[in-house]
Design goal:
- The protein is mostly helical and 166 residues long.
- Helix content is 78%, strand content 5%.
- A two-stranded parallel sheet has the order 1-2.
- The longest helix is centred in the middle third of the chain and has 54 residues.
- The protein is rod-shaped and about 85 Å long.
């Protein structure tokens, strides 16, 4: 009787173990950071963004220098001109300060917009490649390695890079 009970418990444990093994999803990881820092098309997009940022920075610097030069000139002449001229100049300086602030906001918005235009298709391409490689290898889940505390399972980064052509 005891032997039969032991055998029944062992059979139940074996069945539960097999079901658990079958229920476990296959997972792998990929280093998205490595891909995004080495993918040629992303590197090219970043160069374009950098050039655009440099252009905006140069224009901003020119506006600020012009503002500072006028402020210095108007400050030096303020005692020799009428109050009406000083008020007009003060308004002109406020208008210039507003233009500089507006330019800065517009430049930031344009940079963000351009970044979205350039990067979104590339990020979508990376995601599609990860999905393609993961499915081809039979994985139900592919995790980003940067958020893992332990990445002991299969790493498909090399396959994704190959699929992306680099």
């Amino acid at each position: 009787m005891m032997k039969t009970f032991k055998n029944a418990i062992l059979a139940v444990v074996a069945i539960i173990g097999m079901q658990t093994a079958q229920a476990q999803a296959k997972t792998a990881h990929v280093d998205v950071n490595e891909i995004t820092t080495k993918m040629p098309s992303i590197l090219e997009a970043r160069k374009q963004l950098e050039k655009l940022n440099e252009s905006y920075s140069k224009d901003y610097k020119t506006l600020v220098e012009e503002y500072q030069a006028k402020a210095k000139k108007y400050d030096a002449e303020s005692g020799t001109v009428s109050d009406a001229v000083n008020q007009t100049r003060q308004q002109e300086m406020q208008d210039m300060a507003k233009r500089i602030s507006d330019f800065q906001e517009t430049a930031q918005t344009e940079l963000q917009k351009k970044e979205g235009e350039l990067m979104k298709p590339l990020i979508d391409k990376i995601k599609a490649s990860i999905s393609k490689v993961g499915k081809a290898k039979g994985y139900q889940y592919v995790l980003d390695a940067s958020g893992l505390l332990l990445a002991d399972g299969p790493d498909i980064t090399a396959e994704v890079k190959k699929d992306l052509g680099f």
